[in-house]
Amino acid sequence: MSGATRLILVRHGESLWNVEERYQGQADSGLTATGIEQAETAAKVLKARFGRPDLVVSSDLPRAWDTAQAFLRLAGGAAERDPRLREADIGDWVGRTFTEIAAAYPDVLAEAARGGDPRRGGGETFTDMRRRVWAALVDIAEQAGPGKSVMVFCHGGPIRVAAAAALGLPEPGHLAFSPPVNTSVTVIDYRGERGNAVVEYNAPTAWAADATRTD
């Protein structure tokens, strides 16, 4: 880690729409009872592994913010909100079930599975999200400075594209990484132009929820 800023990316706990298999995007359905317990379990693991980071930043969406609060109640301190860390904007797919979208938009899903980058629901592409999220993480890393650690509470989609961006994979690059499970940890050492490293990806801190879709 010498000379790097360590970014510790944590996916939120299980949400209601994760369980109901609905696309969530930038809407929010709140943590389930299981999600709350996952967040509390993850907080203990995160505190034991990483101690108190130099900076804590969270997506402003409630499912990520509430997961961050579970950690802060244990570790102390406060989190900054950054809306650039939100999940993808998926337009009018929000709240619709995976089954419904698969029936209504098979061509869009097939294109995405082939590595294309459609605007799901008329919202963002994965490339759009990657550029937004990576710009936020670069700003956050530079705010903290070399040798510091930052814990970032966010979402599955942003974590996938951040890992791809860190390694400089061709955009969008997310298909190189499996969807992170709830409250998993991904660690990126940010060194800017000197090169970055994905130290750890999708390491569970609590039991994995059945629903691991990133939206």
Q: How would you characterize this protein structure?
A:
Helices cover 38% and strands 15% of the residues. The protein is built from 7 helices and 6 strands; from the N terminus they run βααβαβαααβαββ. The protein has helices at 16-19, 33-50, 62-75, 98-104, 106-113, 126-144, 156-166, and strands spanning 5-11, 55-58, 80-81, 149-154, 185-190, 197-203. Helix 3 (62-75) links the parallel strand 2 and strand 3. Helix 2 packs across helix 3 (62-75) and helix 6 crosses helix 7 (156-166). It is globular and about 50 Å long. The two termini are 31 Å apart. The mean pLDDT is 95.
Number of domains: 1
Enter the CATH topology name.
Rossmann fold
Order of helices and strands: EHHEHEHHHEHEE
**Can you give the mean pLDDT?**
95
Judging by the overall fold, what is the CATH architecture?
3-Layer(aba) Sandwich
Q: Output the radius of gyration.
A: 16 Å
Number of strands: 6
Give a short account of the largest sheet. Answer: 6 strands, mixed
Walk across the major sheet and give the strand order.
3-2-4-1-5-6
| Individual helix count | 7
User: What's the CATH superfamily, by name?
Assistant: Phosphoglycerate mutase-like
* Overall CATH class: Alpha Beta
Structural class: alpha/beta
- Beta-strand residue fraction: 5-15%
Low-confidence stretches: none
How does the overall form come out from the CA principal axes? Answer: globular
The span between the termini is 31 Å
Helix content: 25-40%
